[in-house]
């Protein structure tokens, strides 16, 4: 992280009556960084964007853009653009006029407006569509117009609130890639709200996970996925299995709900300590009961449910201890039929010890 972040959020709190929408949040965004804000409904994601854009005022804390405190600065005076899920194009204005709108309001000269609009539309492959009205565009095209409209003023920070939420799955992925390319080309910092974890992981440089108005973890996608800090993050991202146990004198963790012993990577926990461990479903191998391995990180069980998803199988296995574990196998695997006895096995490195 460079010395001066593009955006710095320091201890920001915001209440709406009895609801603490944000509860003392600290977060930095580096210049040119793509940050995703991920969290469940009501976790405070939109409130955070609205505070940065200037549509709401924090109760306490500071918001700095390139070191400048934004307190008291109206939205239009901030070097910040915003894109909403609902496109929010002016229906009675052409594509050209929609993109030119903000530039005209700023008093930019006409030839410069024409140049910037053409450049903006070319960036998202919409050249030649200047005269079209919003209703003559597809959903994906409308969202691209909304995107470049918000970038026409060349803000150093772009806030995006569920920008892909209204698009269907195929278009969502393609527009996501375009968004990413656009971000790289403009060099602007992007902060995107989403509650789609796959979208956050695939597009962002870092993902900030919010829970109840607090930041629970902010890391690169791979780190967040492989090393979730808390139970919430582990469950929210990829539906990890949560195993509870107690450390023995040898450092191994007995897990009665599964009927297994866990061997942890790294330093052994003190004897008697309660330990929570996350194990990703795709890190667990599934074998016929006849090939059951012995020792740590193995469990016996019965295959309860099996679902084919094309690129993967999802299996639910009721373990000897009673807890049901979720296992994801590659689509090319040939799992046994439901009802069969199975054995599960995973490596030490798959055991991620959670802080809380
Ligand atoms: N203007 C408002 N008046 C009253 N309560 C509000 C207002 N705006 C937000 N809240 C409350 O603050 C909390 C956080 O809301 P926010 O919209 O930031 O969540 P979110 O994470 O964006 O949720 P979603 O994913 O559902 O959009 C919620 O409990 C919400 O009901």
Automatic annotation (TrEMBL):
GO molecular function annotation: ATP binding
Species lineage: Bacteria, Pseudomonadati, Pseudomonadota, Alphaproteobacteria, Acetobacterales
Protein name, entry field: ABC transporter ATP-binding protein
Record keywords, A-Z: ATP-binding, Nucleotide-binding, Transport
Pfam families: ABC_tran, TOBE_2
Chain segments annotated as coiled-coil in the UniProt record: none
Domain ABC transporter: 7-237
């Amino acid at each position: 992280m460079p010395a001066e972040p593009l955006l710095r959020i320091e201890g920001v709190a915001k209440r709406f009556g009895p609801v603490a929408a944000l509860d003392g949040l600290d977060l930095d965004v580096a210049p040119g960084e793509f940050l995703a804000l991920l969290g469940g409904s009501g976790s405070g994601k939109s409130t955070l964007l609205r505070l940065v854009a200037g549509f709401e005022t924090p109760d306490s804390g500071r918001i700095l853009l390139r070191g400048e405190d934004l307190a008291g600065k109206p939205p239009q005076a901030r070097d910040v653009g915003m894109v909403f899920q609902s496109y929010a194009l002016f229906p009675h204005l052409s594509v050209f006029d929609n993109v030119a709108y903000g530039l005209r309001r700023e008093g930019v000269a006409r030839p410069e407006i024409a140049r910037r609009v053409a450049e903006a539309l070319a960036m998202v492959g919409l050249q030649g569509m200047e005269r079209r009205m919003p209703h003559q565009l597809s959903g994906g095209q409308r969202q691209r117009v909304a995107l470049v409209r918000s970038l026409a003023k060349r803000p150093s920070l772009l806030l995006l609130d569920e920008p892909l939420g209204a698009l269907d799955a195929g278009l969502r992925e393609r527009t996501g890639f375009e968004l990413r390319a656009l971000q790289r080309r403009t060099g602007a910092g992007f902060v995107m709200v989403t509650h789609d974890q796959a979208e956050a992981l695939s597009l962002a440089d870092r993902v900030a996970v919010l829970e109840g108005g607090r930041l629970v973890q902010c890391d690169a996608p791979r780190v967040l996925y492989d090393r979730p800090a808390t139970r919430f993050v582990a469950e929210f991202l990829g539906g990890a299995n949560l195993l509870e146990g107690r450390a023995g004198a040898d450092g191994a963790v007995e897990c009665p709900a599964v009927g297994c012993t866990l061997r942890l990577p790294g330093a052994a926990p003190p004897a008697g300590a309660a330990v929570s461990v996350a194990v990703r479903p795709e890190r667990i191998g599934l074998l016929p009961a006849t090939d059951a391995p012995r020792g740590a990180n193995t469990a016996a069980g019965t295959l309860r449910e099996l679902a084919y998803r094309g690129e993967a199988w999802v299996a639910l296995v009721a373990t000897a201890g009673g807890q049901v574990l979720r296992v994801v196998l590659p689509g090319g695997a040939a799992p046994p039929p439901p009802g069969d006895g199975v054995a599960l096995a995973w490596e030490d490195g798959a055991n991620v010890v959670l802080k809380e």
